[in-house]
Design a protein that fits this description.
With about 100 residues, the chain is α+β, with helices and mostly antiparallel strands. It has one domain. It is built from 2 helices and 6 strands. Strands 1, 2, 3, 4, 5 and 6 form a 6-stranded antiparallel sheet that branches. The radius of gyration is 14 Å and the shape is globular. It starts with a helix and ends with a helix.
Amino acid sequence: MSDKDIINQILDDNNVEHVILVDEESNTFEMAQLGVIPLHGVVYAVLDLIAINHQRVSEEDAGVVILELDFDPEADEYFITTIEDDDIFNEVMEVYESLPME
């Protein structure tokens, strides 16, 4: 799946399928969608890591993953990046945790 397809999947309110990402080393990451947070002009996806390379993650490896969903209109390209900055991660989580649960 391309970054564009993954972003469209995440932003589709009717989609409940898990998100599957493959890194540069062909590792596969399966994640459940928890929410989408627009913050400071950027859209973040909050996901729960379920499996790596088709193996369920242990409790110690499980956790939340936050992705930044980007689009470069000049190049007409979509990009997905993981958030590694603790301040941004914490800010997105704070907003996510303050949302009312459905």
